[in-house]
Design brief:
By secondary structure, the chain is an alpha+beta fold. The chain has one domain: Beta-Lactamase, CATH 3.30.450. The chain is globular and about 55 Å long. 38% of the residues are buried.
Length: 162
């Protein structure tokens, strides 16, 4: 009888501890990333929007960590637009803000790869943050408009993504 009581008590301890463990939060975080065809749609729409306005530009999309995931350059855009668009996208993604909103942050002027020139826009839909997009090669305000056009091109898809 003592042996059975010990087994029952042991069983309760095991079951009880598994319930405690199951009520704890999982020690991982779920992230959403843009599918490559969506990232390419953003840069294509951004470059096309600027071309319609008469500007030859480059556009870059980076993930939430600032890693390049899509890039498109109009063959007639200046070679400097390659790095500038990537650094603006990096800045908007890692700071999670439009570069136009960060120009007052002189403390960031010497931060590695940060470029606070207007034209970088964070990519965010339905409370999920995906990264940043930026355009370089037009007037700064036009760069930002074209970057936003890239985001707008996928907004319908992303609003209903689950």
């Amino acid at each position: 009888m003592k042996c059975i009581n010990k087994l029952v008590l042991f069983g309760f301890l095991i079951l009880g501890s598994s319930e405690v463990l199951s009520s704890e939060k999982v020690p991982t975080v779920q992230l959403r990333v843009l599918a490559s065809h969506i990232a390419h749609k953003i840069v294509s729409a951004a470059v096309e929007n600027c071309a319609q306005k008469g500007y030859m530009v480059s556009a870059a999309v980076v993930d939430r960590n600032g890693n390049l995931v899509a890039f498109l350059r109009n063959p007639l855009s200046g070679p400097h637009t390659i790095k500038v668009s990537q650094r603006k996208a990096f800045s908007s993604a890692t700071l999670r803000a439009r570069t136009s909103e960060m120009s007052f942050r002189s403390d960031l002027n010497f931060a590695p790869d940060i470029l606070l020139i207007v034209g970088g826009v964070p990519i965010q839909f339905v409370g999920n943050f995906y990264g940043g997009v930026a355009v370089a090669g037009a007037k700064p305000e036009i760069d930002e408009q074209c970057a936003q056009a890239g985001i707008d091109a996928i907004s319908e898809i992303m609003e209903f993504a689950d």
